[in-house]
Design a protein that fits this description.
This protein is mainly α. It has 11 helices and 2 strands; from the N terminus they run αααββαααααααα.
Length: 230
């Protein structure tokens, strides 16, 4: 038994334990753990030697290999299969190009875009109603439309049933543009600044001012309706 221990100490001289590897790499990769290192071994990213007692031992080139693999994964979102192929090319003496970065997965779905026929189907609008909305400037013509355009066109369909055509609501868009000009004027001091806190404040303030303008407009409309019905 003492002889076996001596052989292990001799064969592992200059090698690092999994704990020592973590101590070296953790400052660069805070989320790194022993289980992560073992997983990278299973994926074929690194192949540490094993002592007679079964302990993993890592050479300096293993540490550099792990650093490279973890960097590719963190900075370029490389899948393990691509990293493994890249490392295999390096092992073979080739000079492979760094794999193209893969965008990180997003939990936010991409916004839906609608072609003309899809827009008509989703909104229930007749082609002529869409044409009128575009010609009067209520909707901006495009090759593809977003969800807001679907909502506007659905509202136009409902209004059209009561004889209110796109040309009648064109003033609403013009009013909205005047609101934006009013908000821009109110925030002119903030908008002239380029520092991050000012831009962040402007981002918060603009929707708040729009909401207040909507509240005032809503009160005016309700009061006018009350007069109409009284």
């Amino acid at each position: 038994m003492p002889a076996a221990s001596a052989r292990e100490r001799s064969s592992s001289a200059g090698l690092l334990s999994i704990g020592q590897v973590l101590a070296r790499l953790a400052p660069e990769f805070p989320g790194l753990s022993a289980s992560k290192l073992r997983f990278l071994e299973v994926q074929g990213i690194v192949t540490p030697v094993r002592t007679e007692s079964g302990y993993r031992k890592f050479a300096q080139h293993d540490v550099e290999r792990l650093r490279l693999a973890l960097t590719l994964q963190r900075d370029h979102f490389m899948p393990h299969s691509v990293i493994r192929d890249y490392l295999a090319d390096l092992d073979a003496g080739r000079d492979p190009a760094t794999p193209a970065a893969v965008p990180p997965p997003s939990i936010v779905p991409a916004p839906r875009r609608y072609r003309r026929e899809e827009l008509l189907s989703a909104s229930g609008a007749a082609p002529q109603l869409l044409n009128d909305a575009i010609s009067t400037g209520v909707i901006t013509g495009s090759d593809a439309y977003g969800e807001q355009t679907v909502a506007v066109l659905r509202a136009l369909v409902a209004l059209d049933r009561h004889g209110i055509e796109p040309r009648h609501v064109r003033a609403l868009r013009q009013s909205a543009e005047r609101d934006v000009s009013l908000i821009e004027s109110a925030m002119s001091a903030l908008l002239r600044r380029t520092d991050a806190p000012s831009r962040a404040r402007a981002t918060e303030l603009a929707p708040e001012l729009a909401k207040r303008l909507d509240e005032v407009r809503g009160i005016f409309v309700r009061n006018a309706i009350d007069r109409l019905l009284s």
